[in-house]
Design a protein that fits this description.
The chain is mainly alpha-helical and 149 residues long. The protein contains five helices and four strands, in the order αββααααββ. It has a two-stranded antiparallel ribbon with strand order 1-2. Strand 3 and strand 4 form a beta hairpin. Helix 1 runs antiparallel to helix 2. The protein starts with 9 loop residues before the first helix and ends with a strand.
Amino acid sequence: LARWRCTMPEDKIESHEKVVRGYLAGIVNAKCCGENEDGDKIMMKDEAQEHKKRILDRSVPLTKQQLQKACSVNYRVKNPHYISGSELVVRSLSGDAKKIENFVVDWRKHFIETVNPKFMPVGWCVDNPVVCGRQDEGKSGEAECVKQW
């Protein structure tokens, strides 16, 4: 808004200003009454309501300071419920060796079909055995698959 107002359509200007004014009015509500942790004076309720009215009044233009304050907001907020795709895959396999093997073989097939590589390591094959975790020597001397999932 500060730089491009003269090139923007009026409806876009109004839409963006509405968002900025709503944000600034929300800040006024949050800072109402008393002092903050730094000891800075915070508006009293009546003063805050009057200031909020001025912010929301579309006939009063937004100042550069108000626009800068809106621009400096941290708009990226981490979603506490986000689960990465890789985590979902690992959970869906639930440590089942057969599911893991099928998944790995399917990804190998997908890789070959999608990338169509010209060169692969000697001995590489889609159907090569899949090892789950590490190989440990069992009591009988045979290697056992230790699941790390």
